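sorry for the late reply, my laptop died twice this morning and i had to redo everyting from scratch. anyway the thing you sent over, i finally got around to it. pasting the sequence first so we're on the same page, its 208 residues, then the predicted structure underneath. double check i copied it right bc i was rushing
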Amino acid sequence: MAKLDIQKTRELLQDFNFKLLFIDELGWLNPVVKKRQTIDVNGAVFDIRHIAQLGGVVVVEVTSADGVMPQAKMRAAVHREFSKLYFENLLIFVDKERTHSLWYWVKREGKQNIAREHLYMKGQPGDLFLSKLNAMVVDIGAFEQGEPSVIDAVKRLKQALDVEATTKRFYTEYDALRLQFVELIEGIDDERKRQWYASVLLNRLMFI
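ok and here's the structure:
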């Protein structure tokens, strides 16, 4: 089973280089659509940039014309409109400054559509996001019999983004322990470096 290169993945995540993140570290395929697209939702224009795909699931960055992160109702409207073109998708809403991103995936259960939203901001340690991304990794062996199916691709997104309450509790407790661990580290005066060091050690334990 493929594992994340934690350091490289963290760097790409913090740099908001989501295309290289998916292609180089998660093992997804380059998108078929190379050109940027635009969609109009009730008069609001959004720029669409395809960054990766797998088994019929497309991953795109979405930026509004004014560069501001759209509100929840508008995000849902953008998803509905984009799904007319690509039924299975992951939308990554990004602001103009590329400091805030919101990963938007919709879980389908019968006739219900349940939005799953995950916020990542520049400067976050990214520990929780790294654990989510780990579920999206595609091993090269998965392509031996051809490209993974849309069912396989959706399953990966579900494992990564359909976070249950117990998982949320786990990471709440994990973050509390991480902060305690930071206080125990000696010999590093810089607070940010102590936090980084603590995150690296804990992540290595998590992904063994």
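The chain has a mean pLDDT of 85.
thats about all i looked at so far, will dig more tmrw
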